[in-house]
Amino acid sequence: MPKPVLIHIDTPREMPLNGRVRVRGWAASDTRLVSASAGSFQRGEALAWEERPDVAAANPAYVHTSGFCGLLDEGLLGPGRLVVRVETESGTDLLEMLLPLPTPPHDKAARLARIRPHLRGGRAFRETPFHFDFLTPDMRERFGIADTDSVSNFEYAPAVRARIDSCGDELVLDCGAGNRPTTWPNIVNLEIVAYPSTDVLAANEDLPFEDNTFAMVVSCAVLEHLRDPFAAAREMVRVTRPGGIIYADIPFLQPFHGYPSHYYNMTLEGAKNLFAGPCRIEQEFVPHYGLPVWAMTWFLNSYAAGLPDATRRKFLQMRVADLTGPAAGYLDEPWVRELSARKNIELACATSVVARKA
Q1: In which band, very low, low, confident or very high, does the pLDDT at 15 lie, cut at 50, 70 and 90?
Q2: Considering only 72-76, 89-93, 252-256, 331-335, which range has the smallest mean pLDDT?
């Protein structure tokens, strides 16, 4: 006999690193699901329901299924415990999960000790065994910083790695590092998300380091996600020592993608303009991971994914030559008219905004 209510917690699996915890999971019930909350036995925060077709498919014996998600402050958790409550029409059920404390990477203490003397004075921050946290609530609001489930966890491209190696043992700042699979004694990983590899939580537009600290500053596919890339560029220049290098990858023809938001793509001229005043542009090029073929395949695959099944199948049978005519001649085609609104925004050639001053 199956249980009247099933509750499963997907995340978190351990205590949070930055004082906030994203809860995600699902519930399945014989009776209608009313509400879900998470926290401790004493206090809880309401969770939002979200569609989870995978849960419905995996639990056909249950009439009512849904995912739940929400963001909690660490203070809402019990000591090392997370409690999720689900209310249904027939009552309330709960699931308690023990959350172990995460273990810092073996090299973390040494990296933090090396960073500490270079932190700018007079700035409030929270220090943990994992990182220095400068992201106050005011700063999060000021720079539009929000938590995200998106994770970048790439190793450095060979061209970037070669530049880093040329710095020897001097300090290198990685602005928007993501969750780097490999960490290095001289690389400072700065992020807005507390990954295990993150050393400093801060905004790129207001870096918490002394002037002239780094031999190199790296920014790989980050500046398009900032509200003020010009301020970030000024900060990158400020913390680079005289004669140091700034290496920036910036998308041009890429669809909308949020980490957690996406503001500005740039031409090569625009990218150079960010740094050309205080710096001499030493090299300009298209890296192998920025060749046009990446934009073309990304665009076409994402476009096809936004079409109804029957139209998608016909669209995928088209030849390249079928897609190279005047754009105005395609406007009444099903594969244009039936593209989802979300995909139209993601892949738009242009968008419009109308604003009225208060």
Answers
A1: confident
A2: 72-76
Say yes or no: 185 and 243 in one domain: yes
User: Token digits for 254?
Assistant: 């890429």
pTM for the whole thing?
A: 0.80
Taking Cα atoms as reference points, which of 97, 118, 104, 102 lies closest to residue 16? 102
d(CA 3, CA 346): 42
CA 253 to chain CA centroid, Å, is: 19
Position 163: which residue type? R
If asked whether residues 146 and 284 sit together in one domain, one would say yes
What DSSP character marks residue 330?
G
Residue 90 phi, psi dihedral angles, 5° rounding: -100, 0
Domain extent for 342 = 296-346
Span 258-295, pLDDT tens digits:
877 899 999 999 999 999 889 999 999 999 989 999 99
Q: Are residues 216 and 114 in the same domain?
A: yes
Q: What is the CATH number of the domain that holds 168?
A: 3.40.50
51 has a pLDDT exceeding 80: yes
Helix (H, G, I), strand (E, B) or coil at 8: strand
What dihedral angle (degrees, nearest 10) is formed by the CA atoms of 218, 155, 347, 229?
Answer: -10
Largest CA distance in the chain: 72
The count of domains in the chain is: 3
Q: How far is CA 185 from CA 133, 167, 219, in A?
A: 19, 12, 18
Query: Is the residue at 103 inside a domain?
Result: no
| Other CB atoms within 10 A of residue 324 CB | 8
Going 133 to 138 to 139 to 145, the CA torsion angle's sign is positive
Supply 255's token pair: 């669809």
Is residue 340 a part of any domain in this protein? yes
Q: Is residue 234 part of a domain?
A: yes
Q: Are residues 240 and 148 in the same domain?
A: yes
Structure tokens at 315: 């669209």
Q: Is residue 225 part of a domain?
A: yes
Are residues 52 and 172 both part of a single domain? Answer: no
Both tokens assigned to 152: 């970048």
Beta strands of the chain (E only): which ranges? 5-11, 20-29, 33-39, 44-50, 64-73, 81-88, 91-98, 126-127, 132-133, 172-175, 187-191, 200-201, 214-220, 240-249
Strand partners, 91: 88
Place of tokens 């001053």: 357
